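Section 5: illustrative case.
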């Protein structure tokens, strides 16, 4: 899978402009790249990030109709990557933990690319849904992953978004995110980022 995935990524990155002009090829490549973004091998997932960044940049230069056709793709990618920000539920050696932290920041860059395509309201709605789904879970890691995602994308969010952020921010300040120090820390960072 890794060799085939690497070849596919190379094709995607190398011929992106040509592929955008050939929808039939792009319609086969993009689902394959989405599948690669969801595999268990994080080193393979990481290889897809340049493709997504290049695609997002290319979409900025194309007409809105082409851009809009990719919203479902980037929404799917956003939903796939957010839970991957979750720390392991078991303890891991310090070296693995540090490598995962680095990987999370790479995911964060890709999440920002997604937000630029799907928009603020959609991105914050997805994060809010994820946070609500973690309320009944005992471990701190699932909610922290979504909080990390929100903090990471906060620099590209439209501050004047008036649908979801005004609902989410008071929820973040509520008791659900005061139970664990990592949640509280993440919320404080998010509020600081949104206040800039």
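Designed sequence:
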């Amino acid at each position: 899978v890794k060799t085939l995935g690497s070849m596919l990524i190379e094709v995607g990155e190398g011929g992106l402009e040509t592929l955008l002009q050939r929808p039939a090829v792009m319609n086969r490549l993009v689902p394959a790249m989405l599948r690669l973004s969801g595999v268990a091998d994080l080193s393979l997932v990481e290889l897809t990030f340049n493709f997504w960044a290049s695609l997002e940049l290319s979409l900025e230069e194309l007409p809105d109709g082409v851009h809009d056709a990719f919203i479902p793709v980037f929404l799917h990618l956003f939903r796939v990557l957010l839970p991957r920000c979750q720390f392991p539920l078991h303890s891991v050696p310090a070296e693995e933990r540090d490598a995962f932290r680095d990987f999370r920041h790479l995911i964060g860059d890709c999440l920002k690319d997604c937000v630029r395509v799907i928009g603020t309201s959609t991105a914050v709605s997805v994060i809010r849904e994820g946070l609500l789904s973690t309320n009944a879970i005992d471990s701190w890691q699932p909610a922290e992953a979504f909080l990390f995602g929100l903090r990471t994308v906060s620099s590209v969010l439209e501050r004047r978004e008036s649908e979801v952020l005004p609902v989410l921010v008071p929820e973040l300040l509520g008791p659900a995110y005061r139970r664990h120090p990592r949640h509280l820390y993440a919320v404080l960072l998010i509020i600081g980022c949104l206040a800039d």
